[in-house]
Design a protein that fits this description.
The protein is 50% helix and 11% strand. By secondary structure, it is α+β, with helices and mostly antiparallel strands. It is globular, with a radius of gyration of 26 Å.
Length: 667
């Protein structure tokens, strides 16, 4: 018998629709049920590709005895964190405040008005590793609810008050200080893993925003150590098991410190951000290996993660047939069966051994040269085809706007840097899809689309990340509709997400709109996590829009947020990577290039290609014959020829009409 999740579009919620637990989706119906029945709420938050979510589901949520306890004493609500990042933010903060840690599955017990009074993550079916069993937790909380309810309610109020104080804590509101950039760089240099690349031990995460910041730092200062940290990390990841050596693209993170054994789930936002970092690093040093990894990652997205409509799917599961990583691992004999006489060289270069490196089988890692890798391309293709005859990992086919914005930016920049019409078509189709299917009649955004159905009003990060993608696309094909859409979305951000003046907020925006759902706390994310926070990306894109259109208001809002967050950036750079990228842009000498000519004309393309060459993070480019954006306005061609105007720090060079003259100005 199905519970109340049967009609939900979320793959994660559908996975629980036949549990004996009487699950409800988040909404007024479930909250009212808790009030009417005078019960606390068990709130379970996870996502479809989460391995330990599946473990707890199998152990507890499919268990009749556990379900009986839940159904008798609690109202149970299941939430897909990818659909409701606002709820995830609030209750992850509560979980961290109460336990000192957090993760998924997230298990939170709340009152009917949303106040959390007990929290944890995974609870086992039987007590182990100093963790009580889930049934023990349920029984104890049910007893306390009946006998000492006031204690739980009081604790919930205290937690909410603590979260409000934490969110309202004011940061330094001084000016923008270049010393923050230097402090962040020194902190990253000191904590860098010189042996394996990256930062920290196990588990180890890719940190794409940190790598982007170091590329910006190297561009500004010329510091070779910054570039070395980037290339060492990118090379190690691309050779490790965190990278899919056969199909391209990245897994979520490495469970060890040396990138060998991944947590096998695959998230769109990882491939989006990492493809862009590899592309940028290639632009700096020309290493063909870095370019290849970027291309293979983008090709994986086209092949496996793109909907017929043009959106990008969210995730792929870690498990197949109930086993983590089963789809990706190999034995020597399996490789010999596919490759025959070519097998031994492949086995040697990809580290395949009889004992394996993962539960008796081998996760592929690469130990050869780039030339050897190229020589094994056909062997990889044959193994990839053989692997595809296995059970494929499950795929969550929802389209999340914010993650799609990041992926759009990656394809748009790759189209520009690699002169790829194929990638450009993917980017244009993605932008068309997002703007036509995920905008409301009044030009607001939805957060999620799946199989033709939209749901959940857009969050700050949906607007800001999509603006980033649209601006990247505009600077590739110069279609003014992308710029107009980006500016329109920015105005919606200023209209509906801005924090109240004098409200004690350190940054400019809330994560939810002013007409969004009424929650126990209006969340305001400042730290960058797996994806940039909405506020850090807001600072990033508002600075770009300010320069493209000369809008001082955009720049002032961005600078105020950057100044407020500056102390945290310098102290904790791994948690503020996108903020550091934005601060670097705010402090840099701006460079704007306007090319006056028809975007499709050969003479225009010639000048544009000069301006687009290389990694130039502080350069903004506009091209066309109209007045949009204002960077193009009131500029005329010289002698009827396509003309380029280069300006730095409000000082403009004489207009030029030939490629070599433009190259000299830019150099």
């Amino acid at each position: 018998m199905s519970n109340h999740l049967a009609g939900e579009s979320s793959r994660y919620l559908q996975q629980h629709a036949d549990n004996p637990v009487d699950w409800h989706p988040w909404g007024e119906e479930a909250l009212e049920k808790a009030r009417q029945e005078d019960k606390p709420i068990f709130l379970s938050i996870g996502y479809s590709a989460c391995h330990w979510c599946h473990v707890m589901a199998h152990e507890s949520f499919e268990d009749e005895a556990t379900a009986e306890l839940l159904n008798e004493h609690f109202v149970s609500i299941k939430v897909d964190r990818e659909e409701r990042p606002d709820l995830d933010k609030i209750y992850m903060g509560a979980t961290q405040a109460m336990t000192g840690g957090g993760g998924w599955p997230m298990s939170v017990f709340i009152t009917s008005d949303g106040k959390p009074f007990y929290a944890g993550t995974y609870f086992p079916k039987e007590p182990r590793h100093n963790l009580p069993s889930f049934q023990q937790v349920l029984a104890a909380l049910a007893e306390v609810w009946d006998e000492r309810r006031s204690d739980l309610i009081s604790r919930g109020e205290q937690v909410v008050e603590a979260l409000q104080r934490q969110q309202a804590a004011e940061s330094d509101d001084g000016g923008l200080d270049p010393a923050v950039i230097e402090s962040a760089y020194q902190a990253l240099r000191q904590r860098f893993d010189d042996r394996h690349g990256g930062w920290g031990g196990a588990p180890k995460f890719p940190q794409p925003m940190t790598l982007e910041f170091l590329l910006h730092y190297h561009h500004t200062t010329g510091q070779p150590r910054a570039m070395l940290m980037v290339t060492q990390t990118l090379d190690a990841m691309a050779r490790g098991g965190i990278y899919d050596q056969l199909g391209g693209g990245f897994h979520r993170y490495s469970v060890d410190a040396h990138w060998t054994t991944p947590h096998f789930e695959r998230m769109l936002y990882d491939s989006a951000q990492l493809a862009r970092v590899y592309l940028h690093a290639w632009q700096v040093n020309g290493d063909p290996f870095l370019r290849t990894i970027a291309e293979e990652t983008l090709d994986y997205i086209i092949r496996e993660m793109t909907s017929p409509e043009g959106g990008f799917y969210a995730t792929q599961d870690a498990d197949t047939d109930g086993e983590e990583g089963k789809y990706y691992v190999w034995t020597p004999e399996e490789v010999r069966q596919v490759l025959g006489d070519e097998a031994e060289r492949f086995i040697m270069l990809y580290g395949i051994t009889p004992e394996g490196n993962f539960e008796g089988q081998t996760i592929l890692t690469f130990e050869g040269t780039f030339e050897e890798r190229q020589e094994l391309a056909q062997a990889r293709e044959r193994l990839f085809e053989a692997r595809n005859r296995r059970t494929l990992p499950g795929r969550d086919e929802k389209v999340v706007v914010s993650w799609n914005g990041l992926m759009l930016a990656a394809f748009a920049e790759a189209a520009r840097a690699l002169r790829s019409d194929r990638y450009l078509r993917v980017a244009q189709r993605s932008a068309d899809f997002l703007l036509s299917r995920l905008r409301t009649e009044d030009r607001r955004l939805w957060h999620v689309w799946k199989a033709g159905e939209t749901k959940v009003m857009g969050f700050l990060e949906d607007y800001t990340h999509l603006i980033e993608g649209l601006l990247a696309l505009y600077q590739t094909d110069f279609d003014p509709r992308w710029y107009r859409a980006a500016r329109g979305l920015a105005n919606e951000v200023l209209a509906h997400f801005v924090a109240e003046p004098g409200g004690g907020s350190a940054v400019a925006f809330y994560d939810t709109a002013d007409d969004g759902p009424d929650l126990v706390l209006r969340p305001q994310e400042t730290q960058d996590n797996a994806v940039p926070s909405g506020n850090s990306m807001a600072a990033t894109v508002l600075l770009k829009l300010a320069r493209l259109n000369g809008e001082r208001e955009y720049e002032e809002v961005a600078q105020e947020s950057l100044a407020a967050m500056a102390p945290l950036m310098g102290q904790y750079p791994l948690g503020f990577g996108q903020w550091l990228v934005a601060l670097d842009a705010a402090l840099a000498v701006p460079e704007e290039v306007a090319v006056i000519g028809e975007p499709g004309a050969a003479a225009t393309r010639d000048l544009v290609e000069v301006a687009q060459k290389g990694f130039t993070p502080h350069r903004l480019l506009a091209a066309g014959t109209g007045e949009v954006p204002k960077l193009l306005a009131q500029r005329e061609q010289v002698d009827g020829k396509v003309t380029a105007f280069v300006c730095r720090a409000s000082t403009c060079h004489p207009p030029v009409t030939d490629v070599e003259a433009l190259r000299l100005q830019l150099d």
